[in-house]
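Appendix B. Raw example, untouched.
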Amino acid sequence: MGGYYLYVMYGFEHVPNTYVAGYHKYISLPFMTACYWSYYMASATDPGRLNKSTDDVIKERALKRYGFDEILFSDKNWCKTCEIVKPARSKHCSLCNTCCEKMDHHCVWINNCVGLHNYKYFILFLFLHTGICIYGVTIGLLTAQHLIDEQDLWNKTFYTRNGQHFKADIWIVMQYLQNEHEMFAIVVFLCGVVTVMLIGFIGFHSFLIYNDYSTNEFAKRQQLTKFVADRVAFLLKWEKARDDGKAFKPAQKAIDKYNIGKDIQADMSTELLKERVNHAQY
C-alpha cells in the first residue's frame, strides 16, 4: 500500500503527459484494489488446516482426497503435534503449528500457509501483482521519456559542483532524473525488481501446476532422487570392489544411511548384492 501511495504522490503529478493519457490516474485504482482483494483472500482463507480438534468428518475427507503412494506419503505417517494421521500431500507447518492439506509452502508475504483451499488465490495474487508492477514500470519509463523530451536533456550539458561539465549520455540522464525525481525513481526501480521476482515465481508455479506438484512435493522428490542416486552409487562401488576381488566392507554407518528397505547386510553374497543393485536402479 505504501508503494502505491508513493507512486500516486510522486508519479501521477506528471500524468497526463506526451506518452501517458490522463485516464491512467483512474484505472490504476481498481487494478490495485483487485491486488489487495487477492492478498486478503490468500491470507484470510483457511488453506486446509488439520489438527486433533478438527471435525472427524473433515479429517476423514482429507484422508480420502488423495491416495497414498507409500513413497513420499504413507498412511502410517502420524503427526505427533496434531495427533492425526497425516493425509497424503499434507505437511505439518511449524510456524502455524498445524498440518495443512496439500501443503505448498508457508508464505511470509501473506503470513499464511498456501494449501488446498487458498492456492488459487495465491496464484491470482502473483499474477495481479506482476501485472500492476509491469504497469508501474511501463508508466514510469514513459513518464521518464516525457521528462527527457520536455527538458531536452539529450542536448544539455551537465555541470558538477567542481565545475566539470559533461555531454548528456544515458547514465548521466538517468542520474539526473534520479536526483530530480528521487522518490518516483525509487518506486519505479522497485517495481522492476519485484517484477523479475514475481515472473520467476509464476514460472516456477506454472511448472508445478503442469506436473501436478506442490512446492513441498517438488522438494521431497528432489531429496528422494538424490537419495536414490547416492544409494545406487554406494551399491555400485561395493559391487565393483567385489568384481575386482578387493577386500571391501562398508561401514555400518553407511549401511544404516542407505538401508531404507532393510535389505542390505554387510556380509551378503555377491549375487545378492548384484540383485540389490538392479533393484535400486530399476
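End of appendix B.
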